[in-house]
Design goal:
single chain; 155 residues; mainly beta; Metal Binding Protein, Guanine Nucleotide Exchange Factor, Chain A; seven-stranded mixed sheet; three-stranded antiparallel sheet; globular; binds zinc ion
Length: 155
């Protein structure tokens, strides 16, 4: 199945805008406690895009915060509506090159939800709020969750 590129993304208030110009590598539901608090939901729904696959619009500003449990991840929020808009994960810790940084895009950012790839897996399922009755693989714990996502990135 082909997905159209680029995809337009925007936050609720419209202040943060960007285009996704590369295909989605993996999509997951994350049940970790940080996602639960950041998203104010039982789990986050996010896609992973390779480095350089996000092109920001002029004037689009994102406020980045690091959360202690996962110090390598920069979580970006809209300065106006405070919605989570983008998270950045350097493939090599400390190396901030765009091409070497994975983009985690919350699915709520996509303006056309029908173009978003179907979900691949649940991660951090051990900290779930409620059991999920679906056919997707469910990975528990930090190491197994990370290995499942990375395994999808290395084709
Ligand atoms: Zn999470
Ligand atoms: Zn906003």
């Amino acid at each position: 199945m082909q997905y159209q590129q680029p995809e337009a993304c925007s936050c609720l208030c419209g202040q943060v805008n960007y285009s996704v110009t590369k295909p989605t590598l993996v999509r997951f539901y994350c049940h970790c406690t940080i996602c639960q608090s950041v998203y104010q939901k039982p789990f986050a729904d996010a896609t992973v895009i390779a480095g350089g696959g996000v092109v920001h619009s002029d004037g689009s500003q994102i406020t980045y915060r690091k959360l202690r449990a996962y110090p390598n991840i920069n979580r970006g929020f809209c300065p106006s509506c405070d919605m989570p808009v983008l998270a950045l994960l350097p493939l090599v810790p400390g190396v901030g090159l765009t091409a070497m940084t994975l983009n985690f895009i919350p699915v709520h950012m996509y303006q056309n939800q029908t173009h978003v790839r179907p979900c691949d897996m649940h991660i951090f399922y051990d900290s779930r709020v409620a059991d999920i009755d679906d056919e997707l693989p469910k990975h528990e714990g930090y190491l197994r969750s990370q290995a499942a996502v990375v395994g999808k990135l290395i084709f």
